[in-house]
Amino acid sequence: MKKPTIAPNILQLFHVAIFGCLLFGTSSFGRLLVDERFESKLTAAPMQMVLLTQKDYIQFLRWELPVPNIEEFTFCLWMRSDNLTYPHSILSYSKNERERLVRAWISAQGRSVHLEIGGSEVFRQTISLKENRWYHVCQSWENREGRFAMWLNGRIKAQGYAVKTVQHVIPSGGDIVLGQEYTDFDKGLEEGIEGAVLGFNFLLKSAFEVERPPPPPVQTLSRAIIPYEIPRFVVTRSPSIRISKLGRYYENQTRYSLRSEHPIISKTSSAPFPLGQQLVRQSYVRCELGRGSPRIGGSLMLISWSRTPVRVFGGATLKNARNDCGNF
Predict the structure, then answer these.
(1) Which of 201, 193, 194 lies closest to 292 in space, CA to CA?
(2) CA dist 23 to 37, 74, 178, 198, Å?
(3) Is the whole model's pTM more than 0.90, yes or no?
(4) Could you cite one Gene Ontology molecular function of this protein (predicted)?
């Protein structure tokens, strides 16, 4: 056990009025030190990061919103760990603080990243994270084919199909939490992020196109064949972004939506990128958009870092962040 469990006799509560409503910090699993920061803070310029230490009290973020049934999603965040001794929970979606619906986490020592849906492992991917460095992590899944993908610093690290999750619908009405596994409070504080998080966004769309067979080539009067797809073009970062430190974003909209063998390239078409791809790309390349939350997807953006009310538990603190992706 990493630290003692939560002191039962301590509760500090701060109220913040937002949109004319007074929201109170309470918890059904016991008393917590609650330090609430809502949209009025996260939307203040410049961007805001949340610092978590997991010292003395469990620290995490929980979003206040009704969650619908989920058939596909993409989520992204920036994370810096100051201590990789224990696993880091980067997404916990559960009901009644007991039923695990979706779990995504980074293992102890930063050696692997995981996704689990409905109790079934979707993927486990070996990685190598170092302490005191910022990383951009995204995961996407859809239930039509059980398709999944994971990106680390813009590079796709895992992709495939999880057969057990085909046609699986993630139930509505749960709690979305970042920083702790929301069903493990009785085990102490071993599953918490120790470091900083920024730009957590959760979109109710995947990063994958619905695959359709391409139309046949067009034959002109001169009998020249015009290919259906237009030649590739290159998309680069803004000159102010340090590409050498962060790596590059990769995509190839053929069989898989994204690949790691090519630089930032895509096959142009009249259709826009899938919303999940837009989130992956924009939150990495232009992390400052929307103060950490690109304005895409409309109501499909279930959680926006800068616009969705959130409760910050356990004394976690807010700090201004630089508009320099990966060097906040």
Answers:
(1) 201
(2) 11, 28, 19, 23
(3) no
(4) metal ion binding
